[in-house]
C-alpha cells in the first residue's frame, strides 16, 4: 500500500460521468487530501476550477459533450497550475499522444487497480512537494549549518534557554526587539529546534504592498483579479507543516489583520477568488520592533490578534545590553565575512575592542556586522576608521551602560599639565608637541587611545612623530 503522506493542504478534482467511479476515488483520496471534489460533467468541472485552487485533476477523457482532452486544450497552459491524470477505457495511441502533448502527468487505462491510481497520485504529489521546496529555496537559501546564537553574556544565555524551551511547542511566538537585534535568527532557531517537517518561510509584512499582501499569504485562483491569469499558492500553503515567520507584523494593515486572525483561529485559509477554505498546519512566529501594546491602544493593531500572536513572547536585548558578547561576535563576523569575500580576516587590536565597547550601537548587531564588513573591505581597524570620520566618532555616543567586555582605558587624567604650565615663550608647535607626547605617555605609548582622547586620527599622530624624528635626525 502507498504510505500515508501529509497531503492535507492539497486539493483534488475527480471528473467522471460514472457515479460509482466518483464514489470509489473520493473514498480513497479523502483519507489523504484536505479537499476532494467530484463532478460528472465538464461544465461542473470548469465551475470548480474557476472557484477553487486545485493541485490535481483526475479526468476521464470520454465524457458526454466536451471531452476531457478538449477541455484541457481550451485552457491556456499558463492557467494550469495543477497536474492532470487522464483516464480512458480506450487504448488509442493517438489519444495517449495528445494527452502527453497537453502535459498529462499520467495516463491510466480503465479498468484499473486502485493501487496503481494511488501510485500515480503519489508521484504527482511528490513533485508538488518538490516544487514547494524549490519555491522556498528561491526566496531565500536555507543555511545548512545549525543556527547558532553567538555570545555568552547573561542575557544571551537566557535567550538561548528560552528558545530551546519554546521551540517544541506549536504555539505562536511573538519576538520583540529593536531593529537589527537578530529577530529572524531567533525565529529560524525556533523552527530548527521544533523538528517540524515543513519549511521555514519568512515574509516582511512591511515590504509587500497592502493590496498584494492577502494574495501573498493566502494565494489566489485564476482570474481572481485583473492580471491573475494563473492561480498561485500563498505562503501559508508553502509553509504547510513548517513555520511562517511574519516579520514587522506591526506594519500589517488593519484590514488584513482580521483575515490573518480568522486564518489562525480556523487553521484554514481561503485563497482570493475562492469560496472554499483549505486547512493548513502552520506555526506562526511574528516579530516587531514596535510596542504592540501601545499600537493596540492607538487602534493601529487589533487586540484579539495581539493576544493570538502573543502566546509566547521572546524579548531580544539590544547589543548595548550584552556588550560582553562583542569580542566573540566580532571574531565570528570577521571570519564569516572574510571567507565570503575571499579575504583575510582583519586583526583586531586591544584598543579596537575597547573602542567598540564604548559605543552604544544604535543599529545593534546589524550595525556591528556592517562595520566589520566595511573595515575588512577598507583594510583598516575601526579605531582609525571611526576617528577619520568626523562626526562618526564612537566616543560621541558613549554608553551609559557600565557593562564592558574589558576595563576601559582612561580617557582623562587629573595629572595632565594645565595650559598655563607651558612656558610663555613656546611656540604653538612646541606646545602641540609637548601636549601630544604627554597624552601618549599617559596611555603608555598607546597611540590609538591617545588619538581618541585628542580627537584626531592615529595616522595624524604617526605623521607627527615621524616629522619630529626627522627633525632630530
UniProtKB/TrEMBL annotation:
The keyword Phosphoprotein applies. PANTHER family: TRANSCRIPTIONAL REGULATORY PROTEIN, TUNGSTATE-RESPONSIVE TWO COMPONENT SIGMA54-DEPENDENT SIGNAL TRANSDUCTION SYSTEM RESPONSE REGULATOR FIS FAMILY. This is Sigma-54-dependent Fis family transcriptional regulator. SUPFAM superfamilies: CheY-like, Homeodomain-like, P-loop containing nucleoside triphosphate hydrolases. It comes from Aliivibrio finisterrensis. GO terms for biological process: phosphorelay signal transduction system; regulation of DNA-templated transcription. The modification 4-aspartylphosphate is found at residue 60. Residues 11-125 form the Response regulatory domain. InterPro entries: AAA+_ATPase, AAA_lid_NorR, CheY-like_superfamily, Homeodomain-like_sf, HTH_Fis, P-loop_NTPase, Sig_transdc_resp-reg_receiver, Sigma_54_int. Residues 149-377 form the Sigma-54 factor interaction domain. One of its GO terms (molecular function) is sequence-specific DNA binding. It holds the Pfam family Sigma54_activat. Keywords: ATP-binding, DNA-binding, Nucleotide-binding, Phosphoprotein, Transcription, Transcription regulation.
Amino acid at each position: 500500500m502507498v504510505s500515508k503522506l501529509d497531503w492535507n493542504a492539497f486539493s483534488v478534482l475527480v471528473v467522471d460521468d460514472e457515479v460509482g467511479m466518483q464514489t470509489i476515488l473520493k473514498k480513497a483520496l479523502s483519507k489523504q487530501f484536505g479537499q476532494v471534489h467530484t463532478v460528472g460533467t465538464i461544465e461542473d468541472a470548469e465551475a470548480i476550477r474557476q472557484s477553487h485552487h486545485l493541485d490535481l485533476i483526475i479526468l476521464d477523457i470520454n465524457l458526454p459533450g466536451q471531452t476531457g482532452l478538449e477541455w484541457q486544450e481550451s485552457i491556456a497552459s499558463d492557467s494550469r497550475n495543477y497536474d492532470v491524470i487522464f483516464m480512458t477505457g480506450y487504448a488509442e495511441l493517438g489519444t495517449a499522444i495528445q494527452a502527453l502533448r497537453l502535459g498529462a502527468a499520467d495516463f491510466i487505462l480503465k479498468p484499473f487497480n486502485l493501487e496503481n491510481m494511488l501510485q500515480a497520485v503519489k508521484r504527482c504529489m511528490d513533485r508538488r512537494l518538490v516544487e514547494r521546496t524549490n519555491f522556498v529555496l528561491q526566496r531565500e537559501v536555507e543555511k545548512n549549518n545549525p543556527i547558532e546564537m553567538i555570545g555568552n553574556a547573561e542575557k544571551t544565555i537566557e535567550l538561548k534557554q528560552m528558545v530551546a524551551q519554546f521551540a517544541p511547542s506549536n504555539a505562536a511566538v511573538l519576538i520583540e526587539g529593536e531593529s537589527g537585534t537578530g529577530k529572524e535568527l531567533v525565529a529560524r532557531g525556533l523552527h530548527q529546534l521544533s523538528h517540524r517537517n515543513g519549511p521555514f518561510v519568512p515574509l516582511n509584512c512591511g515590504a509587500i504592498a497592502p493590496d498584494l499582501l492577502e494574495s501573498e499569504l493566502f494565494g489566489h485562483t485564476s482570474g481572481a483579479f485583473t492580471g491573475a491569469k494563473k492561480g498561485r499558492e500563498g505562503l501559508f500553503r508553502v509553509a504547510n507543516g513548517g513555520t511562517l515567520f511574519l516579520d514587522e507584523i506591526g506594519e500589517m494593515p488593519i484590514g488584513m489583520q482580521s483575515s490573518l486572525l480568522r486564518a489562525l483561529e480556523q487553521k484554514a485559509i481561503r485563497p482570493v477568488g475562492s469560496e472554499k477554505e483549505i486547512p493548513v498546519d502552520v506555526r506562526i512566529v511574528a516579530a516587531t520592533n514596535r510596542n504592540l501594546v501601545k499600537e493596540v491602544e492607538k487602534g493601529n493593531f487589533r487586540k484579539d490578534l495581539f493576544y493570538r500572536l502573543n502566546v509566547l513572547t521572546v524579548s531580544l536585548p539590544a547589543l548595548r545590553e550584552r556588550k560582553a558578547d562583542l569580542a566573540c561576535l566580532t571574531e565570528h563576523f570577521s571570519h564569516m565575512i572574510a571567507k565570503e569575500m575571499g579575504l583575510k580576516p582583519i586583526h583586531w587590536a586591544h584598543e579596537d575592542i575597547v573602542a567598540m565597547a564604548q559605543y552604544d550601537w544604535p543599529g545593534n548587531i546589524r550595525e556591528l556586522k556592517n562595520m566589520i564588513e566595511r573595515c575588512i573591505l577598507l583594510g583598516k581597524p575601526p579605531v582609525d576608521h571611526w576617528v577619520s570620520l568626523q562626526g562618526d566618532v564612537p566616543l560621541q555616543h558613549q554608553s551609559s551602560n557600565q557593562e564592558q567586555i574589558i576595563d576601559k582605558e582612561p580617557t582623562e587624567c587629573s595629572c595632565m599639565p594645565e595650559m598655563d604650565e607651558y612656558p610663555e615663550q613656546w611656540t604653538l608647535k612646541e606646545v602641540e608637541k609637548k601636549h601630544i607626547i604627554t597624552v601618549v605617555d599617559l596611555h603608555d605609548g598607546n597611540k590609538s587611545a591617545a588619538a581618541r582622547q585628542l580627537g584626531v586620527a592615529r595616522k595624524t599622530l604617526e605623521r607627527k612623530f615621524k616629522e619630529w624624528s626627522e627633525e632630530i635626525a
